[in-house]
Request: fold
Amino acid sequence: MNIFDYYKNLFLKIIKDIPIDKSIIKKITVETPKQKIFGDISFNAPLILASSLKKQPMQLANEIKELIQAANNDFEKIEVAKPGFINFTFKKEIFLKFIKIIDKNYGKPTSTKSNKINIEFVSANPTGPLHVGHCRGAIFGDVLSNFLKFYGHNVVKEYYINDYGNQIYLFVKSVYFRIIELQKGKAFPEDQGLYPGEYIIDIAKDVLKNIKNENISSFDETISILTPYAIKSALDIIKKDLDLMGIVHDNFVSESDIVNRDILSEAIEKLKNKGDVYTGVLPKPKGDAEDWEPREQLLFKSSKYGDDVDRALQKSDNTWTYFANDVAYHYDKLKRNFDYYINILGADHAGYVKRLSSAVNALNNNKTFSIKLSQIVKLYKSGKPFRMSKRAGDFILAKDLIDAVGKDSARFMMVYRSSNSQLDFDFDLVTDTSKDNPIFYVQYACARINSLFDKSNFDIEKPITDAKLENLKYETEFNLIKKIVEWPKIVNLCYQNLEVHYIPYYLYELSSEFHTYWNAGKENDDLKIIGHSDKELINSRLYLLQKLYLVLTIGLNILDVKVLKKM
RNA sequence: GCGCCUGUAGCUCAACUGGAUAGAGCGCCAGAUUUCGGCUCUGGAGGUUCAGGGUUCGACUCCUUGCAGGCGCGCCA
Reply:
């Protein structure tokens, strides 16, 4: 149960005689007021309804207040506040009831139907290890998937392997020359635009081990033998990197497989039938375009769907572009019939968003496709931009990051900010054991709660059933309860925005309320949670903390960050 | 040149999608403080939300014109 929805529905029922236009009904909300002095919940209906009823918001608020006051008995105080809010303060015994309903599904909506959701993320080229730039999108995608599962949906995490085309050709060529270097000592060519990273040597060794007896002669003769092994080797490295972050995809889709199955001709056919494909000449691009000449080629009319210009499907030599294969891939994805599609792209692919969503819109009219961009991460150590590794050119490897700070810290921090703001990632901070480190602060709260249970010989896993909640009466206790009650609201926020940074934020705030509660015992012996002999009071307080612990656990599980029992 | 993202306290970021006095953490200032679990606690000061214009009862949020930063921009992937 979500108390905000519960009271919204209750209030709407009470004021059912007031005519409400259906289009504005969802703008009416029950919220936590911004400030504590405004009470526990507030209702904005007078503000929303005033104009259509041609009444003053304050006057309407007073009328609605009277109606609710007459019909409901849950509140100690109901007040109208300028510009037209109605603020409610619960009777304490009502508030305490909200705590009782908390279980492992707390916050999960009960009415939502379960949808099949496809979420594509990472999809890094299988040409080498993941670097830090991939981490954020990877973790964001994984946490968002966990969240959507918690919300009640059926989620498939998908990875699109770009194992086709020129980049792969260059990659395999690089592996080939590393093999030649290993076998014959011939220096690796620096001038052919090949992959210079030393990890290619590891891949070369791995490939050699697997193909064993194959005779490595010229590149043209061995390319078809080397390619699958080289891709597999690179993909294994990527999967290991993902595993370090705690990420496992459900489905890997290969571009060359899409090509082999000739999905493209079916997709093009469909676009042709809609009149979205034509042969034409693209306008000259702005900026640097020295060697550009006008050419006739097959184009997709993406401008019809909001893109700036139409996009090429075929190159001048009649082979397909990368984009064309991506159209085919998405066509295949759409045919697999999910209710909802999410793509997570790195910020450097922002320019690709319009043409991709144009293609999806052309292939499928219902609007169930969202693209999320994950912004870049800047690494810092001791306040300075930080480089960790000279391997792989300038890239800092994902593995190095996880090795340095641990999976939990990386996961927590990577989703601590909204996905479309840039993020500063400070190595010192995330490994710090002080309250300045939010991960530590949240996990410390879990450990402290466990310790209180151990000291009192209670099992934290075993629900306390006989607590007398009316023993809870201090402000610090109620502040904690209020924060716990906000959780379903956080869940809604995440869902509406497809963002998850609200969760670590909330967990931090929740932990902060707990630490404040705990610290209050230093000043006032009555507030020591267990440091006294009143068994019944200890029972009540541990009951509250057990519920708190459950909420912390739900949140940390969505982040896939460990709940620490001891530190 | 064009497109997308961003611009909020000294710094890093929130702000429930149009609501109340724009909130946290760090930093700064002032006090308190040896153990329920040590890696502190309580309070305070900090703002013309980049600038101008518009929409309305009401704007950080929407529209518009600029400015600044980031990313991207041909048949690469």
The mean pLDDT of chain A is 89. Chain A is about 50% helix and 15% strand. The first helix of chain A runs from residue 3 to 14.
